[in-house]
Recover the amino acids of this structure.
């Protein structure tokens, strides 16, 4: 009862940026249409059966003026029982066929040649994106063009994760040794949110997803910028020297410099991203400094260790990172 | 010498037995009724523990970015809550009822293997204590004593040494391994008892439905617990003997663990709910004053559920990347199981239809169960449509759905059964007023918590997150969900007060307070150690109805 009402209200898109009933991409739309049929059938069954239950509970309750005699004993009825066996079978068949149609249309969608291919790699607790053939590697914030399909290959380097941006598509798991595929075809530009949906360890909760759907021109411009080498204001800065002499470079890459680690996010164009820590905080120099100082304070369980830098060194490294555009 | 002895004997007869003697009797007992009570008491104790863990989680989630507990503690809470509630609350309680009731209902004097029965109980009991010892004894990820934090289905490779060093995962693994042996022992015992120890006249077709449901449940336990036990052994080999079954770093397969776990995990749901169906199938007829409608179909539906439930497991894995054909198979099998389940709901309804319904506490809980199980079944059908499940899987919608099954379905039936058989077990009546207070508080709390829990799932909230971002439209729903917990806790408090007070002060119940029809009501309350002075002989499914209505006995119609 209360659930039905809640469902009705939940269909409004502005209720949540992650509302599954506000699809803006082909797979999410197909699922949404199937869900309406399923909910209608299930809703009808609910109304009928709970109505019968309520009626029986009121109508057949023992009365105050009861004569104390036992009611007529009925042991069963083949016709009635046959009816409520066959009717559900028919309903199940209808639902099954409708489900099969959508299942094939989404899961076995033809792979149009020349469409954008991105490899999504799950890490504890962040996302790595590699754009095939475009020489672009980035983290946590995925940029996609509007109005065309993008095919995602899902991999994991450690534990299971799941890629879920409800308004774009259903979720698909990222499992080590088990590459998966999914696709999206966004119809409107905008920022779409999501997060990891398969428990992956301590910070499963803060493995957030941000998908920027842009016009083709904006997307091409973004790709062009990301594919360029790192642009820093001062290659010989104090911050850069500290960065390259500490363990930072074991895990992080800054293209065109000695830093080529792959364990953590690629920092080549760090400042082109709006957030840090897989979407947990705005990418400002203050937050960046706090993050470098103690990642564990912002994200307990994060695998990035504190580097034990002095305040002065922190300022310098922050300044260097803030110059990576 | 003989003189001294006789004085000693006489002395012990007069003085009240010391407490240690009584406890010794309970520890060494092989009586099916005492073991049943032990199982139930053990399960109820852990219900409080699991409830506290749930409360901690709900307090943490009452608002976004709350920091009541650390992520590590939260992850331990949901792992322990799930493991506890399934393995150390619901299973022991249902095994306890089966132990107590099955021999009484089939006119037997004990279970087939009384010593195996005691052994199984103590295995279960110690495995639960062992799991909880991890809080103080396990040196795990975080240095100090630590509980398992890998989730109750412990997906590989999170359980590998690489990701879970220390011993927290070992506690989880070994505890379930041991309790699994206990469960299998009990299952074998139940099957042997039902097949071999029925009283004269009680053919399979004349057994009470509760006995049928426990027979199918026990069969499922053997089929379902074995793969889990095997998987735990494989994990043990991985962690300590250099195996690579699930170790993805060395080429193992995370998906094989998922299959191994869910081929146990889904039949397990039916292991839990079939005995609960058994309670409903005994209570609804008695409080509607009518024979069970369509007994043969109910039995057939039970057996069908048993078989189909073995083939639906991978509907837990629609997002794992199985082939379209593979997904489709599990869509069909999952939808198919709705058919026999629907038949059951309709037959219970038809039993109420045209009856005279007495709304005592057991019946109130059963009617609420019918309504809630209907909803749980329907949200199950929703998720069986695999594409829809790609959105719903691993979200709070799923959490709401399975709590609807386990709390709204099974726990409500357990409370119904508890009130129904309380007079038989203790010889005293419970307080009907307090039971109704319990019922209404628990119904309100249940619906506040679990109705509203569906919504954040539809709005994109995944399960197992220790905190969430504001601005996702999840805040209000989570607040209401947490408020419901207090009502549920108040309901449980009324239950505990009622049980304790009634045990000491309840008025004597007599042997048959409900004017019921199955054999257990023909012996005294509580039953003597040997159950029946002479083994009963039955001619129909309702032997006591035949006795009470010699002019219109059931056996004329069956």
């Amino acid at each position: 009862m209360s659930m039905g009402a809640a469902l009705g209200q939940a269909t409004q898109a502005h209720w949540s940026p992650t509302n599954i009933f506000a699809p803006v991409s082909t797979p999410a739309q197909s699922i949404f249409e199937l869900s309406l049929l399923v909910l209608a059938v299930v809703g009808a069954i609910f109304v009928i059966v709970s109505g019968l239950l309520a009626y029986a509970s009121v109508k057949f309750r023992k009365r105050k003026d009861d004569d104390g005699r036992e009611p007529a004993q009925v042991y069963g009825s083949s016709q009635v029982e046959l009816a409520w066996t066959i009717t559900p079978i028919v309903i199940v068949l209808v639902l099954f066929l409708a489900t099969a149609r959508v299942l094939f249309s989404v899961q076995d969608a033809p792979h149009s040649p020349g469409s954008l291919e991105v490899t999504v790699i799950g890490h504890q607790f962040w996302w790595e994106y590699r754009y095939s053939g475009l020489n672009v590697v980035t983290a946590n914030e995925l940029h996609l063009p509007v109005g065309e399909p993008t095919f995602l290959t899902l991999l994991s380097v450690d534990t299971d994760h799941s890629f879920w941006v409800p308004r774009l598509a259903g979720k698909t798991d990222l499992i080590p040794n088990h590459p998966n595929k999914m696709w999206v075809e966004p119809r409107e530009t905008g920022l779409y949110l999501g997060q990891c949906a398969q428990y992956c360890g301590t910070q499963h909760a803060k493995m957030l997803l941000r998908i920027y759907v842009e016009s083709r021109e904006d997307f091409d411009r973004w790709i062009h910028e990301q594919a360029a080498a790192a642009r820093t204001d001062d290659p010989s800065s104090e911050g850069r020297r500290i960065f390259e002499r500490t363990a930072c470079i074991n895990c992080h890459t800054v293209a065109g410099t000695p830093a080529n680690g792959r364990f953590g996010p690629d920092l080549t164009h760090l400042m082109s991203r709006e957030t840090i820590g897989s979407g947990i905080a705005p990418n400002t120099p203050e937050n960046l400094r706090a993050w470098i100082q103690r990642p564990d304070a912002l994200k307990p369980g994060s695998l990035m260790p504190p580097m034990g830098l002095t305040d002065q060194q922190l300022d310098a490294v922050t300044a260097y990172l803030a110059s990576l555009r | 010498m003989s003189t001294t002895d006789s004085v000693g004997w006489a002395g012990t007869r007069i003085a009240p037995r010391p407490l240690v003697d009584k406890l010794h009797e309970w520890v060494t007992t092989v009586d099916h009724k005492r073991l049943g009570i032990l199982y139930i008491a053990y399960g109820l104790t852990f219900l409080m523990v699991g409830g506290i863990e749930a409360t901690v989680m709900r307090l943490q989630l009452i608002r976004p970015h709350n920091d009541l507990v650390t992520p590590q503690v939260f992850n331990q809470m949901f792992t322990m809550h799930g493991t506890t509630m399934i393995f150390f609350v619901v299973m022991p309680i249902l095994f306890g009822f089966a132990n107590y009731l099955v021999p009484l209902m089939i006119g037997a004097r004990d279970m087939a293997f009384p010593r195996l029965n005691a052994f199984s109980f103590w295995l279960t009991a110690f495995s639960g204590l062992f799991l909880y010892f991890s809080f103080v004894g396990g040196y795990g990820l975080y240095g100090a004593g630590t509980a398992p934090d890998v989730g109750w289905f412990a997906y590989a490779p999170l359980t590998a040494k690489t990701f879970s060093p220390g011993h927290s995962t070992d506690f989880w693994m070994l505890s379930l391994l041991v309790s699994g042996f206990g469960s299998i022992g009990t299952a074998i015992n139940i099957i042997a008892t039902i097949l071999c120890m029925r009283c004269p006249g009680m053919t399979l077709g004349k057994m009470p439905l509760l006995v049928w449901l426990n027979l199918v449940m026990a069969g499922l336990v053997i089929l379902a617990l074995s793969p889990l036990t095997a998987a735990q052994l494989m994990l043990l080999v991985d962690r300590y003997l250099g195996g690579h079954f699930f170790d993805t770093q060395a080429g193992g397969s995370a998906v094989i663990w998922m299959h191994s776990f869910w081929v146990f995990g889904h039949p397990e749901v039916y292991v839990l709910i079939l005995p609960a169906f058994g309670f409903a199938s005994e209570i609804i007829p008695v409080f509607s004053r009518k024979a069970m409608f369509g007994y043969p179909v109910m039995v057939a539906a039970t057996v069908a559920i048993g078989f189909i439930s073995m083939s639906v497991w991978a509907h837990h894995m629609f997002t794992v990347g199985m082939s379209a054909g593979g997904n489709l198979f599990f869509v069909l099998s999952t939808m198919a199981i709705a058919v026999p389940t629907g038949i059951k709901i309709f037959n219970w309804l038809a039993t109420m239809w045209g009856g005279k319904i007495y709304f005592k506490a057991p019946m109130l809980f059963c009617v609420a169960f019918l309504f809630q199980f209907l909803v749980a079944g329907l949200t199950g059908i929703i998720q069986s449509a695999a594409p829809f499940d790609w959105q719903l899987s691993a979200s709070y919608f799923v959490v709401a759905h399975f709590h609807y099954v386990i709390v709204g379905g099974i726990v409500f039936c357990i409370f119904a059964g508890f009130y129904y058989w309380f007079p038989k077990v203790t010889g005293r009546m419970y307080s009907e007023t307090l039971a109704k207070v319990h019922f209404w508080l628990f119904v309100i709390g249940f619906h506040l918590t679990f109705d509203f829990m569906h919504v954040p799932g539809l709005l994109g909230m995944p399960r197992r997150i220790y905190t969430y971002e504001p601005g996702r439209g999840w805040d209000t729903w989570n607040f209401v969900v947490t408020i419901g917990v207090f009502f549920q806790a108040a309901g449980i408090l009324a239950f505990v007060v009622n049980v304790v007070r009634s045990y000491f002060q309840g008025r004597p119940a007599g042997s048959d307070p409900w004017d019921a029809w199955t054999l257990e009501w023909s012996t005294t309350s509580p039953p003597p150690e040997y159950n029946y002075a002479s083994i009963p002989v039955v001619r129909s499914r309702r032997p006591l109805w035949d006795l009470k209505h010699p002019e219109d006995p059931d056996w004329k119609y069956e």
In short: Chain B has one domain: 30-556. Confidence is low (pLDDT under 50) at residues 1-11 of chain B.
